[in-house]
Amino acid sequence: MTFQNTREFARELDSKDTLNHYQEQFIFPKVNDKRVIYFTGNSLGLQPKRTKAYIDEVMNDWAELAVEGHFYAEKPWWDYQERFSEPLSKIVGALPSEVTVMNTLTVNLHLLMVSFYQPKGKRYKIICEEKAFPSDQYMFQSQVHFHGYKPEDAIVEIKRREGEHNIRLEDVLAKIEEVGDELALVLIGGVNYYTGQVFDIKTITAAGQKAGAKVGWDLAHAAGNIKLELHDWNVDFAAWCSYKYMNSGPGNASGCFVHERHHNNPDLPRFAGWWGHNKERRFKMEPNFDPVHGADGWQISNLPVLSLAPYLASVEMFAEVGMDALIAKRDHITSYLEFILHEIDKEVESTFEIITPSNPEERASQLSVFLHGQGRSLFDYLMKNGVITDWREPNVIRLAPVPLYSSYEDMYDFGQILKKGILGK
User: Fold this and answer.
1) Binding-site residues for pyridoxal 5'-phosphate, please?
2) Which of 100, 142, 189, 244 is most exposed, with the fewest beta carbons within 10 Å of its own?
3) pLDDT tens digit sequence for 321-374
4) pLDDT per residue over 174-205, tens digit each?
5) Closest CA to 226 of 120, 385, 334, 314
6) For the domain with range 7-48+323-424, which CATH number is right: 3.90.1150.10, 3.40.50.2300, 3.90.1010.10, 3.10.20.310?
7) Are 170 and 199 contacting, i.e. CB atoms less than 8 angstroms apart?
8) Domains of the chain by residue range
9) Where pyridoxal 5'-phosphate is bound, by residue (predicted)?
């Protein structure tokens, strides 16, 4: 398709967008009494309007049933998390038994590393990507310290080549082969939070396992954003947050994946708690742990149902839409945003350098843009004029046109505000 940088063209695209009506199912902040252009769904998704009803249902059950809500609520609390297994399995490409919801992201990654980071002898090293999200970096450091190793010895970062913004697949594979029989774990972000680069999960997983390591993924920026086939790709484990592309609310519950081949391994260590105990015998208060079959067997504490309610509202919306439809719009609207940036670049003296890969296979709902010749004042101008975006030092803005609630006209309007912010300075 040949794009045009006009309002009429953008509106024509919106009129043909089968997901366009979902914008009305979200609550947008306002700036200057006007709905914002929201580009930060990669940090915190907007609130779906249906969320309140799901929370109110739990509050009403609590008020009317108190403790009996565990068994007699419309959605009984004692198995509330089981409602996620079917819709979440479709979002991440898993069997229903391979997914669960519990805790928060880094907590779950730590718990999964109890099972899947088992350093022994010379096999103790972890491969991750350079500039992983800081929480992952802190996690790696504390984990290797806990096991008695030094981070500078045990943590191997895959680096970008000089002058390049993204990590090459061949460099990942080469590093895995180089570390070889010293490698215990590969744990990488499925989508790099800074550049928006999407990694080849299937190929990297196969390479890590061929080297004798376990392979896990931090899918914070991937779940609900890219096509995942965790079961078929043979991923050992993964975890993701729910509050970015899946719009569950700030700091909300995290999803986990554990491949079915690990479900019946009695020698696999895990930290146990009563909510992971045999469901039919959970309330018998037995002294010995008998894990629930599947990923639910990694549960520890009874779940915060008030936190799960907004996540359930979101995953049921995803079930209505389907990942294929979301990804189709994601690719198209991201390409239109890229076009708009290039068009505005021609009209101003500044230079925009998109550091997210141009290959559609290596990017998703994010473009990270170096604003050469611009500083923080341009970001401040955008925010004051109703464009909610994200600033990263030294002069990068991250733009995430989320397909559920971003419009093509938003992309056009952003371009005009961006141009005015530069020319007006």
Assistant:
1) 105-106, 133-136, 218, 221, 243, 274, 302
2) 142
3) 999 999 999 999 999 999 999 999 999 987 889 999 999 899 999 999 998 878
4) 999 999 999 999 999 999 999 999 999 999 99
5) 334
6) 3.90.1150.10
7) no
8) 7-48+323-424, 79-321
9) 105-106, 133-136, 218, 221, 243, 274, 302
